[in-house]
Amino acid sequence: MALSAVWVFTAAFCYVHSTPFILLEEEYHFKQWMSQHDKVYDTEEYHHRLHVFTQNKRMIDRHNAGNHSFTMGLNQFSDMTFEEFRRFYLLTQPQNCSATRGGHVSRTGPYPDFIDWRMKGNFVTPVKNQGHCGSCWTFSTTGCLESVIAIATGKLISLSEQQLVDCAKDFNNYGCLGGLPSQAFEYIKYSKGLMTEEDYPYKAYNDFCTFEPALAAAFVQEVVNITSYDEKAMVDAVARLNPITFTFDVTAEFMHYREGIYSSTQCKNTADSVNHAVLAVGYGTDENGTPYWIVKNSWGTAWGKDGYFLIERGRNMCGLATCTSYPVPLL
């Protein structure tokens, strides 16, 4: 009996002391992260965010302990659930990408093994940050138009996402609730152009349209859609012409992407499931023979690899080949 009592006491002692130790360690990491990202909460919010952060960190650690083609890491979103993240940062209105047959005409190649438009000249603007607004489609649009104009003229100008948020609603776009780059290019084509970032600065919320045609700095002559599911045509466009927009399905694991080639079994690959728009600025193949796209995101430079990510190429990963487009500029 005495031995049993000692065992019970010892087990209870370990339980009581180990649990707070784990919590203290998690809280230490959380407070470090809070300091790094200038986060402040009231008491109730603090404990809720600590719990969410802990769950995210455990998921990240489990992923990184496995055998995957990409790593995950803590970032500015680590105190958010995926449901919150989706509501603030992704397209929440259903998107109708109807361009199953596009206007892009491919050639037969051959194509370089590696292309990165950032290395070919001053053709890609710095990574921007969409903030708490599902306006990724506007950044994909401006990024592409900025590049095609720079390639054609040698002048790289930062263009206005806020004009698209405020003014492009008649073209089936919904401001901070979502839209499509192809529809944004249509708006620019038929609405007398797009102003610069400087003249129409970004606010990260829906506002009244204050477009001034006299200040328009970029114009679209033609909108070119690439046939859905044709990644070879996407390679042709990026290799020969310019960066291109694409949309895809973001799931919880992508929110925590750090580096490597993103590949997922969780995401969907159909046009009706896409919820994020980005800019493909190049492509390549890694040392293991895995082909990838080089992609500019709009979540700031603290996310991913300086604001960029790689995603597996050639398999319509997460629906990335379902809705791709680029503009022909009117110069």
From TrEMBL:
Region forming the signal peptide: 1-18
Sequence ranges assigned to domain Peptidase C1A papain C-terminal in this UniProt record: 111-328
Subcellular location: Lysosome
Gene Ontology CC: lysosome
Entries under SMART domains matching the protein: Inhibitor_I29, Pept_C1
Entries under Pfam families matching the protein: Inhibitor_I29 (PF08246), Peptidase_C1 (PF00112)
Residue stretches making up the Cathepsin propeptide inhibitor domain: 30-85
A Gene Ontology biological process term: proteolysis
Catalysed reactions listed for this entry: Hydrolysis of proteins, acting as an aminopeptidase (notably, cleaving Arg-|-Xaa bonds) as well as an endopeptidase
Keyword Zinc (UniProt): no
InterPro entries per the UniProt record, alphabetical: Papain-like_cys_pep_sf, Pept_asp_AS, Pept_cys_AS, Pept_his_AS, Peptidase_C1A, Peptidase_C1A_C, Peptidase_C1A_papain-like, Prot_inhib_I29
Gene Ontology MF annotations: cysteine-type endopeptidase activity
Keywords: Disulfide bond, Glycoprotein, Hydrolase, Lysosome, Protease, Signal, Thiol protease, Zymogen
CDD domains to which the protein is assigned, alphabetical: Peptidase_C1A
Family named by the database record: Belongs to the peptidase C1 family.
Function: Important for the overall degradation of proteins in lysosomes.
Alphabetical list of PANTHER family matching this protein: CYSTEINE PROTEASE FAMILY C1-RELATED
Name of the molecule in the record: Pro-cathepsin H
